[in-house]
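Researcher: Batch entry, complex prediction.
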Amino acid sequence: MVEVKTEILSKYKAKVFKSRKDHILEVDSSKAQEIAANTRAIPGIMTNRGCCYAGCKGVVLGPLKDTLVLTHGPIGCGFYSWGTRRNKARPDENGENFVQYCFSTDMQEPDIVFGGDKKLRKALQEAYEIFHPKRIMICSTCPVGLIGDDIHAVAAWAEKEFNITCVAFSCEGYKGVSQSAGHHIANNGLMKRIIGTDDREVEGKYKINLLGEYNIGGDGWETERILKKVGYKVVAIFTGDGALADIARSHKADLNLVQCHRSINYVAEMMRDAFGTNWLKVNFIGLKATADTLRNIATFFGDSSLMDRTEEVIEEEMAAIAGDVAYFKNRLEGRKAAIFVGGSRSHHYQELLRDFGVTTVLAGYEFAHRDDYEGRRVIPNLKEDADSKNIENLVMSKDMRYRAFLSPERAAELKEKIGLENYEGLITDMPDGTFVVDDLNHYETEAFIELLKPDIFFSGIKDKYVIQKGGVLSRQLHSYDYSGPYSGFKGSLIFGRDLTMGLYAPAWKLVSPPWAQKNEKLSQDGLLREDSDA
Amino acid sequence: MLDQTPKELIKRDGLRINPLKTCQPVGALYAALGVKKCMPHSHGSQGCVSYHRTFLTRHFKEPAIASSSSFTEGASVFGGGANLRSSVKNIFDLYDPDIIAVHTTCLSETIGDDLNSYILEMEIPDDKLVVHCNTPSYVGSHIHGYANMVAGFIKYLADKNAPKNEKLGFFPGFVNPGDLREYKRLLELMGVEFIMLPDQTGVMDSPMTGVYEMFPKGGTTIEEIRALGGVKEALAMGDFASTEPALVLKSKCGVETKVLPLPFGVEGTDKFLMELSRISGNPVPKVLEEERGRLIDLMLDANPYFYAKRCSIFGDPDTVLGILSLALELGMKPIHLITGTPGELFERKAKEILAAYGLEGEGRVKSSGDLFELHQWIKNDGSDLLIGTSYGKQIAKAEDLPFVRAGFPVLDRYGHAYEPLLGYQGGLILAKRIADTIMDRMDRDVLDEDLEVVM
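Model: C-alpha cells for the complex:
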C-alpha cells in the first residue's frame, strides 16, 4: 500500500507542503503525537472554514431567542446567518422568539466613508420602537473594524437611552484564523456582561447548565428530556433554544456540562474560576456515550438515589429502542466512515457510529485547537501567535459569590474517576492506522476518499455534492440534512435510520446506465449488490 | 411564526429586517461559475466565500467551487496583495483552472486594495488568465455583483479586434440553468447562432455519473468571450442583471446592444422571439407557435382560478417584473411588488406594466424593500397568494397564505433550478404551479359537501 500521507502531500508544491504536512497524521498510539491546528488557512486553498463573525454571531449568539442580535455591516453577513444553522427555538413565556428574524444595519457606501455609528444608533432606535426588546447584542462585520466605528460606545448609549441590556461584540471576520476566534469573543462577552447578573435563587436539586449545545435539529431538546427524566434541573442552555434571562442566573448551577468543547470551554473555565462551578465534558451523541455521560453526572453529585434513577432511565430508554437499533446495526455493520466537521462533532459521532458497528477511518476538525485533538494537557504549552494574541484572554478572579460544590479531596478523586474538568481529545479515541487531519481541504477530501475508500463521508454542505457526485454517500453533520435530532437515545435511532436510508437508496444502483461499463468507483453500488433485499 | 411583526408600519432608515437581497460577491461567484474551467476567487476573509459557496450549493444542490484570499488581521491592515499573489500561485498549482475570476469584498474594498495593479504586477503562467471585478458589498445587491462580474470578463477578455462573426452576443441575466437551457433551445429553434455569457448549464446542473469533476463540461469558453468583441450585435436580458455587461461591450468593442426584459409570459416571449426573428431573418417556427397556443389554452382553461387573485410577488427585480407580466396575463391582480435590490427603475417599470393592464396607481411597489415590510403590507391589505423565494415561507405560514416558489433562491425544495420559468414552456410550468397551489388550497379549505372531484 502506498503511504497515504506521503501520497496526499505529493501534490503540494514546497510552501503549501510545508504548511500542510503537520496537519495530517496517522494515529500511532506508541508515540506522543502532535498535530498543527488553529493556524492560518492557506490563501487559495479551498478550506471549509468560516470567519470570526460566523463563530460569534452564527454559532454562539444567534440561537438566543430572547435577544435581538443586530449585525452591523453590509447586508451579506446578516443574511447568510439567518435561519440557516437549524438552531431551533420555541418562543419563551413572553412569546418572544427573535431567532426567526434577521436584523442588519445594511451599511451603504456613505456609511463606510463617513462612519456607520449614526446608522447603528438609528437602527437601535427603530429596533426598540418596533420590538421593545430587553436585550440587544451587536455583532460587527469586517468593514466596521476597519473604519473604526465605536460599537461599544453606541451599545453603552443604547443601554442608557432605552434602559435595556445592550452588548457589542467586535467579531470582524478577519480576526483570528477561523470561527474559533468568534466563539472566544462571544464567550468573553457573555462572561463579562451576562453571567451572574441575576442572583435570584433557582429552585430544584441537582442544578446544571448545558454548555455548547446549540439545539441543531432539536438535539438540545432530546438531551434536556433525558436530563429532566433523571431528575436534573437545567438552569441555562448555552445557547440552543437558550435565553439570556437564564444565562444571567447560570452561576446558580452546581455543574456545567460541556458538550461542544471548542466553542464554549472558555465560559466553563471562567465560571469555574469566578464562581467555583465545576465542569464536566459530556457527550450525548451515541448510545453508550449518553449512558456513560449520565453515569458520570450522577457520580459527580454522588447521591445513590440519583445513581439508581440514572440506571433505571438508561435501562428503560435502551429497552425501548433495542429492536430498532439491532435492525440498523445489521444494515450498517462493517461500513467505514470519514468525518470532517467543526470543533467537537468529529469526535462525538465516532461513538454513535461505533454503536452501529461503523468504524471511522478519517476524522478532522475544521477550526479546532491542539487541545481538541491531543487533550487539554497541551494547553500550557500552546504558543501565542500573531493571530491568537489579538483575541482577549480573560483571567477571572474569585467572585464574592464563589462556592465550591466539592471538597478538594472529592474534586481530585473525580478528576481521576470521571475526567472532571478535562478533555482527552480526539486522537486517543482513534485506533492506530486511522487518520486525523486538521482543516481538511477540498483536494485532500477527494484524495483521501480515493485512498481510504470510506462508505460514508460526513461533512458539510460545501462538500456534500462534491463527495456524492464522486459516488460516495455524504451526510451533513452541521445540519443533519434537515433531519434530527441525533442526540440521546431517540436521536441515535433517527441517525441510524438516516444512514441506512442513504446507503440503501435505490438510485445508487441506477447511476451506471445498462449500456455503459459499470463505474467501479461507486462503492455504494457494490455494497448494495450483496444486500439486494434491502 | 413571526409573532413579533406588528401591523403598524414604522418608517425605517437604519434597520433592515428580513432582507430581500444579499451582497454583491455571491452574484459574482455565480457568474464566474458560468465560464469554463474558471475558479471564482473571493478577495477577502475566508468567511465570505464560505457563506457564498454554502448559499449557492443550497439553491442548486450542486458543488459551488471558489477559493479565498483568506485575509488575516495583518492583511487587513497592510493590504491583501501578498495574499492574492499566493492564492493565484496555489490555485494554478493545485487546481489548474484556465482562468481565475477575482471579485472583491467589503473588506478589500474598504482598505482600498487596487486589484488592477495587483494583477498587472503578478506572475501568471503563460497560458493562464486572471481577471477581476469590484463587488463592494455595501453597494447594490447580488444582482449588481453578477452584472459586474460578467462585465469584468468582457473588460479583460472581449477583443475589439476579434474577427467579425455572425453570432449574437447573449447575456441571459441572473437565471437558473433550466432557464438557460430554455434560452438555448429557443435560440436554436430560431436559427440564431450565439455566444452566451455566462452559461452555468453543465456546471450548476451537472449529471450524476459517479465521477466528480471540479470543472465540469459546461461554461462559456475564453475563446468565446474574446469573440464577443466581433459579434454582429448583442441582446441583454434583464435591465438589472444585464445592462452593465451590454454597456461595457458597446463601449469596449462598439457592439450594438439591446436590453430586453426577461422573456416571461406570452407577450414577453413574443417580444423575445420577434427580436430573434429580426436578428436571424427566420420566421417563428410552427413548433413554437404551438407551444404558445398550449400556454394560452391553459390560461383560458384555468382562468376561473386565476381571476382577480390578489397576489404578492417578491424577489430579484428582473424576475419579479417577469412574474408580474405573467400574473397579469393570467388575470390575477398583483397588489404587492417588492425587491430588496435598490433602483427606482424597478418601481417605474412595474408601474408601466401595471398601467398597461389598467392598474395604474394601484398596489404597492417598492425597491430596496425587505420581507418584514412585505409582511406588514400583507397584514394591512391581505393577499390571496404569495409568489417568491424560499424566505417567503415564514410569511406564508404566519398568514396562512398559499405560496408558490419562484426565483432565487429556492433553498427548501428540489429540482427548481432544472425547471425553466421563461419562454412559453416556462410560462406553462409557472402557470401550472400557481393553479395547483390555488386549487390545492381550495380543496384543503372547502367543506366536505363542497369538495369537487371535477374542477
